[in-house]
Design goal:
There is one protein chain. Helices cover 48% and strands 20% of the residues. The protein is of the alpha+beta class and 507 residues long. It has three domains: 210 residues, no CATH class; 83 residues, Helix Hairpins, CATH 1.10.287; 146 residues, Heat Shock Protein 90, CATH 3.30.565.10. A hairpin with an 8-residue loop joins strand 7 and strand 8. 28% of the residues are buried. The structure holds adenosine-5'-diphosphate.
């Protein structure tokens, strides 16, 4: 048996009207990571740039100070050559011997007077070189990690001079810009493969390497000043990077909280708007439904009063029949009044439903059948009521009677389409699965399979002059009372409408 699920209840908020909220946790995490990495890299680069600038400043100062000393050595030699010894050849000049006390880096002064020879050939070679270049020349250079010594020879007339220089004593530590022992910068003097360590520094491990290479600003002592600084990973500004990362996390959390709040506000506004529209729709449908409901009793009242009037005019003895017609008119007028009262309540207090009461399903059927007696009689339909067991349900009496009335009216209208002999209308009442069940079955043409899914939709009708609101209204009323209304095909032909409602006494 094909079955139709209950149709859409009026006033429900459609799913499509709900604002779609994106799950943004993943993208937010990625954004946080990107911002953290970018910020971290920027902070690290800034720190490295500052360290490089400080390193280069220190290296340049070291180069300048060492260059000044080298120039000083040249100046001392030039002065000696200019003044020449005041003593006889071969006799030491006290002024030369006092130089060491003024310049501690000058360990000794040697002199070659005319007719004498240097103590070593390297000094003689250096003198020759000096004579050719007219500058002081290097001799006996000895650069090791710990020791830095060399001789500086200047050829002059009549006597030539040679200074023995200790490099470690020539470093002006007082003006030095770095703490020699603890500074991470390594400073060396290099020449012809020899390396003398001025300042040890720290150049091990992973990291970034800064280098500085420059010859001393001295023609006679063109040593290479080499400074190296190794920046390790631990020297990066991790504290700042951590602060930045936390700041970004806090900002993103704040931002997403604000976004959530905004979308919740929008959702609330949207729901309010949709709710208002839904309510307007409900009211519109309700009004149209009421027009549908009132049309039938008003027509019946008109027919009954006209019939009574005719009877009284034509044959005053037919008073009992006229009275019966008037009773019908009164009952229909009451029904119309009930329907109107319900409409008024719904409009005035849209959220308050009529309180449920215990209603006997069989009684509701009898009331509806009383009202429809003339309709049944006119069509020659005798209604069979099968009350298998008493079913007392919790319902709004007027709403329940409206449903039963509508189902019976639809069935009678369907029976119009078959021959009088085939017309059967059965109302079946039972209790099943803890619910009161009312079934209205007719032997009419039935509902076509492609029509069946639409019968509960508002304004769906296949009947000429039909409004298509009866079943939609019945379905809304049934669900409003916690029940259900469904349609099935009847065998061998016809339709069955099943109404289930919660029992008043429970299962
Ligand atoms: P209306 O009666 O104004 O057409 P309803 O909502 O009461 O509106 O019914 C909707 C449609 O459901 C009808 O047009 C008809 O096609 C179908 N229908 C309802 N009841 C029956 C029935 N007992 N037998 C056959 N078709 C029915």
């Amino acid at each position: 048996m094909p079955h139709v699920a209950p149709g859409p209840a009026n006033g429900r908020v459609p799913e499509s009207a709900m604002p779609y909220v994106l799950n943004t946790r993943g993208p937010r995490l990625v954004l946080w990571l990107v911002l953290s990495v970018l910020g971290g890299v920027l902070l690290a680069r800034t720190e490295l740039a500052q360290l490089r600038e400080a390193f280069e400043t220190d290296a340049r100062i070291s180069h300048r100070l060492l260059s000044q000393r080298a120039v000083q050595h040249e100046a001392v030699l030039a002065t000696l050559a200019l003044l020449q010894p005041t003593t006889q050849a071969g006799v030491a000049d006290p002024a030369e011997q006092r130089l060491s006390s003024v310049y501690p880096q000058i360990l000794s002064v040697q002199r070659r007077d005319p007719g004498s020879n240097w103590s070593s050939t390297s000094l003689a070679d250096a003198e020759n070189a000096s004579r050719q270049t007219r500058h002081a020349a290097l001799a006996n250079l000895n650069f090791t990690a710990q020791q830095g010594r060399y001789q500086l020879v200047l050829a002059a007339q009549p006597s030539s001079f040679a200074l023995l220089i200790d490099v470690s004593a020539s470093v002006p530590w007082n003006d030095w810009s770095m703490p020699a022992q603890s500074s991470p910068v390594r400073v060396t003097l290099e020449h012809a493969g020899g390396v003398f360590v001025v300042q040890p520094g720290r150049v091990t491990g992973w990291g970034w390497r800064f280098e500085f290479h420059k010859h001393l600003a001295s023609v006679s002592q063109p040593f290479d000043v080499v400074a190296v600084r190794q920046v390790g990973w631990l020297e990066l500004p991790w504290g700042l990077i951590a602060v930045w990362t936390l700041l970004m996390a806090a900002l993103l959390v704040g931002w997403s909280a604000w976004q959530r709040q905004r979308s919740a506000r929008r959702r609330a506004e949207e729901l309010l708007r949709v709710g208002q529209v839904a309510r307007l729709n409900t009211l519109g449908e309700l009004a149209a439904g009421m027009a549908h409901e009132l049309n039938q009793p008003l027509t019946a009242i008109l027919a009954n009063t006209q019939a009574a009037k005719r009877l009284l005019q034509d044959d005053p003895d037919e008073l009992p029949t006229a009275l019966q017609a008037m009773d019908q008119a009164v009952a229909q007028a009451r029904r119309a009044a009930d329907v109107l009262a319900r409409l008024r309540r719904t409009v005035e207090q849209p959220n308050s439903a009529e309180p449920s009461q215990v209603v006997d399903l069989a009684q509701a059927v009898r009331n509806a059948l009383d009202l429809l007696a003339p309709e049944c009689k006119r069509r020659g339909v005798s209604v069979t009521v099968q009350a298998v067991q008493p079913a007392h349900v919790l319902a709004e009496r007027v709403a329940l009677e409206q449903i039963v009335h509508n189902l019976l009216t639809n069935a009678l209208q369907a029976l119009d389409l078959v021959s009088a002999a085939e017309r059967q209308l059965t109302v079946h009442i039972e209790v099943a699965s803890g619910m009161g069940v009312l079934r209205v079955a007719d032997s009419g043409p039935g509902i076509a399979p492609d029509t069946l899914p639409h019968v509960f939709e508002p304004f769906f009708t296949t009947r000429e002059g039909g409004l298509g609101l009866g079943l939609s209204l019945c379905e809304t009323l049934a669900t409003g009372m916690g029940g259900q209304l469904s349609a099935h095909a009847n065998a061998p032909h016809g339709a069955v409408f099943t109404l289930t409602l919660p029992l008043a006494t429970g299962p």
